Predict the 3D structure of the following.
Amino acid sequence: MLNLAFGWVWITMGFLSGALLGMGFHRESFMGGYGSWPRRLARLGHIAFFGTGFLNVLLGLSVLALQIEPGSGVWSLAQWSLVVGSIAMPICCYIAACNKKTKPIFVVPVVGLTLAGVLIGFELVRAYLSTTGGAS
């Protein structure tokens, strides 16, 4: 339920951040113009809310469908890694929009999201192999 609830909150944040950006998009020079670094990163932060929100909803639904025990070992680490990466990504985008020199902070969301993906993939393959006896 953690990822399901968090995902919907994050999708709502995508709506709100889009509304804020939308207040100025009609001005050609808004945030330095359409192709400027600040505007591109702000748009990326806005989309990151949706993308990572959808991933969290998908993981939450997967945990429910597979009847995985909440807080169980590797799944718990994967769920929290996805949440941490999801929180960090838009924050890093907005920070980097203000200061290009902060690009290295993207290591935080990338590590969190990548770790979640690897752990989820590993656990799903392991679960599949255990139900099929290793045969395809």
Summary: The two ends are 31 Å apart (CA to CA). The chain has four helices and no strands.
